[in-house]
Amino acid sequence: MSSPSGALAEDDADLLDAGSSVLPRRIPHDRACAAVRHKNAELWWDVPVIDSYELLRDIYKVPDAVYRANLSMLTETLQLQQLLHTPVRQLSLGQRMRCEIAASLLHGPRILFLDEPTIGLDAVSKLAVRQFIRTLNEEKGVTVILTTHDMSDIEALAERILLIGKGTLLYDGSLTRLRGRFGTRRTITAEYSPSHRPLDIPGAQTVSWSPERAILSVDTSQTPIAELLASLSAQVELADVAIEPMPVDEVIAGLYRELRL
């Protein structure tokens, strides 16, 4: 994160966008990249948010028309109208993160680096930040590279995952392919008309059971879902069935176990 965003000099590496290098190469205030990192804030602590934005406009030499257009779009999308004239030290963590993201985008970078963008945020702020990141990527064409330990971020945002362990790249691909390799187990929650006979479903492990509800765990590589549902229907009168994939953190743990990390 530090090297591609320009905070740390790279020893022998490059980052390409459409075949062209976008690493800052120690040129101050390169406009190709931007980063939001908790330890290196763009905003000045004791001044209103708008003052920091205007200073960043001058640092990045952003034309007035471009600055006004970007500020208007970011203010509306991230709902910053009530925050612009508030000193940064008076903002909540979620408010400050939204303002930091806007600060990093005022100069219109092609690549945005985000370091744990939802850490410590409440549920509403997390949803707002994730929705904005999706919009930024899909509608504005900005490439977003984020580091996160929040599995919900991965599920909500990531089309491509690079999993790193002990300094080594362990996996590079989609979440769907990773699930197909390590996440074949599913959790089945079945609700049915009262039945006092415990379920006996071949190939499934009973996690919990009651006369009206059962939770089963099944490895779909061994027992197809259709076969399991047929067995369920033969034993009880089903009212509702929910099928949930294996949580992402368990999928990743499976990869770690395979590699003995």
From TrEMBL:
Keywords: ATP-binding, Nucleotide-binding, Transport
ABC transporter domain mapped to chain residues: 1-191
PROSITE patterns named in the record: ABC_TRANSPORTER_2
Pfam families: ABC_tran
Superkingdom per UniProt: Bacteria
GO MF terms held by the record: ATP binding; ATP hydrolysis activity
InterPro entries: ABC_transporter-like_ATP-bd, ABC_transporter_ATP-binding, P-loop_NTPase
Protein name stated in the entry: ATP-binding cassette domain-containing protein
Organism classification: Bacteria, Bacillati, Bacillota, Bacilli, Bacillales
